[in-house]
Each structure stands twice: as structure tokens, then as C-alpha cells.
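[agent] plan:
  1. take the single chain provided in the ticket
  2. run structure prediction with default settings
  3. attach C-alpha cells to the ticket
  4. add a short note for the reviewer (M.T.)
[agent] executing step 1
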Amino acid sequence: MKLAILFPGIGYHTDKPLLYYSKKILKNMDYEIKEIHFKNLDFDLNKSKDEAYKQAKDQIEQIDLDMYDSILFISKSIGTYCAAKLAHEYKLTANIYFTPLDFTLEYLQQKDLVYSGTQDQWATFDKIEHYCIHHLIEFHSIVDGNHSLETGNIQTDIENLKQIMYRVETFIHSL
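[agent] step 2 finished; step 3 output follows
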């Protein structure tokens, strides 16, 4: 059995494009899908990260991970911190991170897939890019992309989303 756990952001829930279409891909590949739900987090990410991690860990501990042959984490924003730290603790490799935050970096692993926008207002793009390249982590940038990987040009955003989901699908197939 295969399990995917989705870790949303504070304002970027699983019904938004990156996680919504990732869920559709996972369903087509026969993954069981669970979603982490965050409550009462402050939009100050530095203040929220420890509480978000605690909430995510409490929810993960309610899942019998031993019954799965394969486990995949897909996360966004503050969820990347929680997912990466938990993946490190549970020794899970090859996860997907959309717009990781600066404090997520220390937990990323070589087999991960990372997407970041060059104009991300919540993270330091150059720092993330350098870290991923230096540690041989598969890294993709979205030119002019903000923290939602959107540029403000609808046609560009749709084309970018198409390319992102194609890579997500091929990445999951390779696991």
C-alpha cells in the first residue's frame, strides 16, 4: 500500500492548485491520501513553525505508518518545514516541497524535489537555490513566481502549473 501525506501552508490549503492537482495525480496512482490540518497558526512563520510541527507530528502519530510499503510527503510553505523535519526523523526520502522556507533547508535530502519562485516574498530564493544545488537536490525555479509560484500572468501560470504537475507525476512514478 502507498500513502501520501499532504502538508498545506497557513493560507495555501489542499484545494489550491499545487496541492489539488498533486492529489489528483496521487489518486490516479492508487495512493491513500491523508491531509495534515493546521489550526490557529500565526502568519509570522518564525512564530508558527514549532506549533505547526507539533500539530503535524501529533497527526502523523495517529497513522500506522508500518502498514505502508511507500510513504510520500508533499508540502507547501510552513508545511515544508514540518514535512522535511518529520521525513528526516522517520528516515523517509524522496519528498516534494513547494516553496520551502529558509528554516526548512537543513532537513532537505538529496532525493527530494523542490520548487521555489524567484520572487517568493516569504523565503530567500538565492539561499534556497544555492542550498539545493550545493546538496544535489533536484531544484526547479519559477521565474517571477511568488510564494504561490504564480507570476500574475494567467497564461504563464497555467503553463507553469502544467510543467510542474508533469514533473510531479514523473517524480512519483520514479519512486
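[agent] step 4 note for reviewer: The first strand starts at residue 2 and ends at 7.
[agent] ticket updated
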